[in-house]
Amino acid sequence: MKSKLIIVLSCAIALTAASGIASAKGCLKGAAVGAVAGHYAGHHAVVGAIGGCVVGRHMANKKAAEQKAQAAAAPASTPAPAPVEAPAAAPANQ
Predict the structure, then answer these.
(1) Residue 47, number of CB atoms within 10 A of its CB
(2) Dihedral of the alpha carbons of 61, 64, 69, 72, in degrees to the nearest 10
(3) Residue 23 and residue 20: Cα distance in Å, rounded?
(4) Which of 60, 68, 80, 94 is 20 to 30 A away from residue 32, measured at CA?
(5) pLDDT value of position 23
(6) Could you tell me the residue ranges of all domains in the chain?
(7) Contact 48, 38 (CB under 8 A)
């Protein structure tokens, strides 16, 4: 039993070390909300956290895509500013 635990822990450490930097935008907030909802829906906090993480990532990716589309469309739709002309000099009274 103890050797199985050591094998599982060493595999988990190896996978953690081998993975790169993960982007967790939306996942942490979704997991927290999902865990609370899962807890109140029959003590399924872990399942709720996993589902919340998935939904949170989806929503964050969707929001990022919308912001990217707005940023790409904004410069094309705004008109160019008119050139500013210097005011004409007033005639001197003689």
Answers:
(1) 14
(2) -140
(3) 10
(4) 68
(5) 66
(6) 23-67
(7) yes
Q: How many residues does the chain have?
A: 94
CA distances from 23 to 19, 31, 56, 77, 85 (A): 12, 14, 12, 32, 50
Distance, in Å, from the CA atom of 90 to the CA atom of 42, rounded to the nearest integer, reads 83
Q: Which amino acid is at 2?
A: K
Residue type, 27: C
Structure tokens at 93: 């009274």
**Element containing residue 27 per DSSP (H, E):** helix 27-40
Query: Which structure tokens are listed for 63?
Result: 């929001």
pLDDT in tens, the chain (94 residues): 677 778 877 767 776 666 556 667 788 888 888 899 988 988 888 898 989 989 999 999 999 999 999 888 876 555 666 667 766 666 666 5
